[in-house]
Amino acid sequence: MIGIFDLVEKDPSGTIVVSDFKTSSKGYSNEDISRNFQLTLYGMAAKANGYREREVLLRFDCVVKTKSPRFEQHYSSRTERDERRAVSKMQRVWDGISRGSSSRTMETGSASGVGTSGSVIRRSMVRYRT
């Protein structure tokens, strides 16, 4: 699986913050954020690409396009259990694709940005293999 982080920052305490930029017609709930598969993959990819020993925080920066547009910022993290479930899901999807019984694909977008809360580490393509 290949994807691109929108933004990776290091906050003053050394925590890695992986951000994804979104636009939406409605806001996200805490449950939406905690179950978001893309954020889970971003956390796994950050750990697989040099940040395993660091705390990794995941963030959605979202512009909600309603009659009165607003900006929402949501933080989350993932557990090893969440990561195991993601690997299991990817394996099931891959098995289905291999059998020809699924045409499901997973993509991530790309964007660039400049953080305000810390120093930008890099905008990078990440790879995660199971």
How does the overall form come out from the CA principal axes?
globular
Strand content: 25-35%
**Low-pLDDT ranges:** 102-128
Largest sheet: 5 strands, mixed
Radius of gyration: 15 Å
How much helicity do the residues have? 25-40%
Q: Write out the strand line-up for the largest beta sheet, numbering strands in chain order.
A: 5-4-3-2-6
Class of secondary structure makeup: alpha+beta
Number of helices: 3
Average pLDDT, all residues: 81
Give the tally of structural domains.
Answer: 1
Instruction: Find the count of extended strands (DSSP E, 2+ residues).
Output: 7
What's the end-to-end separation, in Å? Answer: 9 Å
Structural topology:
Layout: E1 2-4, E2 7-10, E3 16-24, H1 30-34, H2 37-51, E4 56-64, E5 70-76, H3 80-99, E6 119-120, E7 125-127
Account of the 3D structure:
- This protein is α+β, with helices and mostly antiparallel strands and 130 residues long.
- A hairpin with a 5-residue loop joins strand 2 (7-10) and strand 3 (16-24).
- The relative contact order is 0.29.
- Helix content is 31%, strand content 28%.
- Strands 5-4-3-2-6 form a five-stranded mixed sheet. Strands 1-7 form a two-stranded antiparallel sheet.
Characteristic terms for this protein:
single chain, 130 residues, alpha+beta, 5-stranded mixed beta sheet, two-stranded antiparallel sheet, 7 strands, 28% strand, globular, disordered C terminus
